[in-house]
Amino acid sequence: QVQLVESGGGLVQAGGSSRLSCAASGTIFSIAAMGWYRQAPGKQRGLVATITRSGSTNYAASVKGRFTISRDNAKNTVYLQMNSLKPEDTALYFCNAHRLSLGREYDYWGQGTQVTVSS
Asked: What is the DSSP letter of 82?
């Protein structure tokens, strides 16, 4: 099992910045990748960014160049630095951990943290 605790977020003005953190605990040695997803009201949850244990990153086109995902393996924490925020970035942001074990895949989710960008 993996537990994820998110922090950060809140209300930000358009053009501003915010940073999300996600601390993982539990069976973390087999986590292959971590990432952030978001869900706006009335929309499906979608990818924001992911990062593998080796540091390879992947971003949604809508955030590329504005958001940066990083991880501190020693602290088992992943971060999402969000710059040049837009009202359309308003959503509930979820941390995800993708674990591989004995040929099986597991996904774990945090409780979500709200990011609201005012225009």
From this structure: E
Q: The dihedral of CA 17, 69, 49, 91: what is its sign?
A: negative
8 Å CB contact between 7 and 79: no
User: 């069976």: which residue's tokens?
Assistant: 27
Calculate ∠ Cα 31-107-62, nearest 5°: 95
Rounded CA separation 4/93 (Å)? 13
Query: Is pLDDT at 89 greater than 90 in this prediction?
Result: yes
Rounded distance between C-alpha atoms, residue 23 and residue 79, angstroms: 9
Phi and psi, residue 89, nearest 5°: -80, -5
Residue 71: name the closest of 24, 8, 39 by CA: 24
Q: Quick check: 20 and 79 in contact, CB under 8 A?
A: yes
How far apart CA 103 and CA 75 sit, in angstroms, is: 26
- pLDDT band at residue 42 using 50, 70 and 90 as cut-offs: very high
